[in-house]
Amino acid sequence: MSAPHPPRLLFQKVWDDHVVASMGEGAVLLYIDRHLVNEVTSPQAFEGLRAAGRAVRRPGGTIAVADHNVPTDNRAGGVAAILEPESREQVETLERNVAEFGIPYVPLRSARQGIVHIIGPELGLTLPGSTIVCGDSHTSTHGAFGALAFGIGTSEAEHVLATQTLLQQPARSMLIRVDNQLGAGVTAKDLALHIIGRIGTGGATGHVIEYAGEAVTALDMAGRMTLCNMSIEAGARAGMIAPDQKVFDWLAAAPLAPKGEALERAKDYWRTLKSDDGAVHDRTVEIDARDVAPMVTWGTSPEAVTGIGSIVPDPAAIADPANRSQAETMLAYMGLEPGRPIAGTPIDMAFIGSCTNGRIEDLRAAAAVIGGRHVAPGVRALVVPGSGQVKAAAEAEGLDRLFIDAGFEWREAGCSMCLGMNPDQLGPRQRCASTSNRNFEGRQGPGGRTHLMSPAMAAAAALSGHIVDARDF
Ligand SMILES: CC(C)[C@H](C(=O)O)[C@@H](O)C(=O)O
Ligand code: SF4
Asked: Disordered: where is this region (predicted)?
């Protein structure tokens, strides 16, 4: 029998099980189980491999898909039909690289194509206790399965491609415990925004967040992914939730997850993946789920957020001069008046999609508020499934008809209007109710104004023509 461990946290267990070598002062070389590759951050990594004459260490542990630059209106023409030259070149380069290095690839025309953080879990590539990296900050999404998953830079991606390992500095741990239950019509997205509003965009810097508590356990897998996805917006290195039966049920239905005997053996291990009694987090944040309202951002940072029943803050009331001037800048960019209710703010666009809220559950929540209404005159509303599978599932349920009949546009899968790397963009001063995760200046197009919110809230805004409490629908 091996010597018993002292009590350990969830993330330490996964970490310890992947240490290839200690590099001193807590830094380690970690084995990486799964490397997800997109078209944006991989070109130089492959270029580096080529220059060094190296191969990919474990092509089978790697999977590539183009998601950021793909148009979402029409796929008939394939990659060659991408009009924007830089976008087309990125996708073509990815296709050349995966062919040359023998990496599994989900092509644009595959029914499985989609945002990498949505298709990984769908395929069953996201497993509890595994280490997952991607040259993309929202890799934290996969922590919903009890994986240790983080975004990496391009040179790190090259290192992982070449060695299947990654140098990691020690991380600290933050427990976010959410007691009690979220109210009716309050979602994981609202919880994520509430947390960021509370601890700030730097609140979890250097930490791996472990989410726990009644309201977290009660979330379905889609909600858990939304929550872990936004960990990065609080500055965290990763977000994790201890795997439970909901994870096992999801994986039992996922095509590439272990099956039969292998699944049973894996589950024996997965059940050990929780923080031990007596293991201590570096920080603990306690949230009462009953305090969480449907949230809407008013500024250009996810922490500039408020409940739907609240007002746009008045910078004059902010004592700290730096914070005051920051709030003034944000309000000027957003074209909002201080002291006015956030509800009632007119919108030009609505975007329902992204790796935060582009899953079937999100589309159902958005469709549920339609209730025979139509998108308000002058508003353009996009529904963009996070993957081809989400799209197919929605169509099988008739959600596409509901959306189309109500005046929403029904699109192909991709990052779409989450960020301006493809044709789906806001124009200057256009205001968008968006289910994405970042409201930075210009994020959805130069001069565009983003209000982050949940799918139900974005759909309700599209139907009303202004920001509104979806619970009143
Ligand atoms: C383009 C990519 C590197 C970027 C990220 O790392 O997150 C994008 O996905 C984003 O959401 O801003
Ligand atoms: S959907 Fe948005 S946040 Fe997610 S990977 Fe794409 S651009 Fe990044």
From this structure: 429-448
Render pLDDT for 67-117 as a digit per residue (tens, 0 to 9): 999 999 988 888 998 999 999 999 999 999 999 999 999 999 999 999 999
Is 172-243+275-291 assigned to CATH 3.20.20.70? no
Quick check: do 172-243+275-291 and 295-472 share a fold?
Answer: no
| The CATH fold of domain 295-472 | Aconitase; domain 3 (3.30.499)
Is residue 41 lining ligand 2, measured as CB closer than 6 Å? Answer: no
Only one residue has tokens 């209730």, namely 371
Ligand 1 centroid to residue 137 C-alpha, Å: 6
Cα 356 to middle of ligand 2, angstroms? 8
DSSP label at residue 357: H
Q: Taking the CA of residue 73 as centre, how many other CA atoms within 13 Å lie in the half-sphere pointing to its CB? A: 7
- As given in the structure block, the two tokens for residue 136 are 């993309």
If one residue of 189, 418, 434, 435 were mutated to test the ligand 2 pocket, choosing by the most ligand atoms within 8 A of its CB, it would be 418
- Does the global pTM surpass 0.95? yes
Secondary-structure class of domain 10-169+245-269 per CATH: alpha beta
C-alpha 381 – ligand 2 centre gap (Å): 18
Integer Cα distance of 461 and 465 in angstroms: 6
